[in-house]
Each structure stands twice: as C-alpha cells, then as structure tokens.
C-alpha cells in the first residue's frame, strides 16, 4: 500500500460514456468529449 503525501501531485482520471447517445455521429461524440474535458 502506498501513501500520498501533501507534496505529491495527484492525477484525477475522469471517464465517461462520451459516445453515449451519439448514434455514431462524430460531432456529437466530440461535443460529449468537450464537456468531459471542461469538467476535468
């Protein structure tokens, strides 16, 4: 088990269904991805 210290940088990974509801439309997938990246 490792322990994070206050000085250690943290990496938060956000995963989501960016293709969900796109019906394979690349523009919709790009819009979903942009929303995920904005939340990051």
Q: Return residue spans where pLDDT drops below 50 for at least 5 consecutive residues.
A: none
| Number of strand elements | 0
What's the story with the biggest beta sheet? Answer: none
H and E string? H
Give the radius of gyration: 15 Å
Structural class: mainly alpha
* Proportion of residues in helical segments: 25-40%
- Oligomeric organization of the protein chains: single chain
Q: What is the molecular shape?
A: elongated
Q: What is the first-to-last residue Cα distance?
A: 27 Å
Strand content: under 5%
Count of DSSP H/I helices: 1
Mean pLDDT: 78
Question: Which descriptors would you attach to this protein?
Answer:
40 residues, 1 helix, 0% strand, elongated
Question: Care to describe what's here?
Answer:
The protein is mostly helical. 35% of the residues lie in helices and 0% in strands. The chain contains one helix and no strands. The chain has one helix at residues 26-39. The longest helix has 14 residues, at 26-39. It is elongated. The mean pLDDT is 78.
SSE arrangement:
Elements: H1 26-39
Give a short synopsis of this structure.
With 40 residues, the chain is an all-alpha fold. 35% of the residues lie in helices and 0% in strands.
């Amino acid at each position: 088990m490792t322990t994070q210290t206050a000085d250690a940088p943290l990496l938060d990974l956000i995963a989501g269904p960016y293709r969900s509801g796109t019906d394979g439309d690349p523009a919709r997938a790009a819009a979903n991805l942009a929303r995920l990246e904005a939340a990051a």
